[in-house]
Amino acid sequence: MVVQVEQIREGGLTLTQPLAQPFLAEVLADAVREGFSPAAASQLTAKLLRTAGGRVLLEGQTDLSLVAPCKRCATEVRLTVPVHFTLTLVPAPVERDRPAADDDSDGSEAESSGSFELAEADLDVYRGKQIDLDPIVREQVLLSLPMHVVCREDCRGLCGMCGQNLNETACGCESKRVDPRLAVLKDIKLN
Ligand SMILES: [Zn+2]
Ligand SMILES: [Zn+2]
Q: Is 9 contained in some domain?
């Protein structure tokens, strides 16, 4: 979704943007941690406020309804992931040669002087007179994904020998199993 900076009035602009399931699926496909997929569409609430120097303060909030495999037993887990961010959007340096009439970026990468400001984590750059929320949402969703998904804190995982889900039933391998570290000690003793 593209917001025209002119649309942001004195008191700020609040808008809601639907986050369709296919869009979320596409975003999640880029996640470093694999296996996340959207369980439902979501909705982003964004508040934009113009501040000094052409800057725009952006606050975004959504709750994502996702599914991901439990890290220990691989059972599908349904989870709600809150995404909340506040960013200061800084206008890219104005290209004075360009006619003001054209409505979007021409893909020019000529000036890169704006990028030094990105060192600060909560700054981002927008170009021209409009702000594209999609890449921002994309990045913030990926940043919000949990490191560690478990079906429950005391998930017992899968049996390393037979693959049985130990939350469901004990498999009996446990009693026969010899810890490999102990096996090594036993060998040492015998020698
Ligand atoms: Zn589990
Ligand atoms: Zn087993």
A: yes
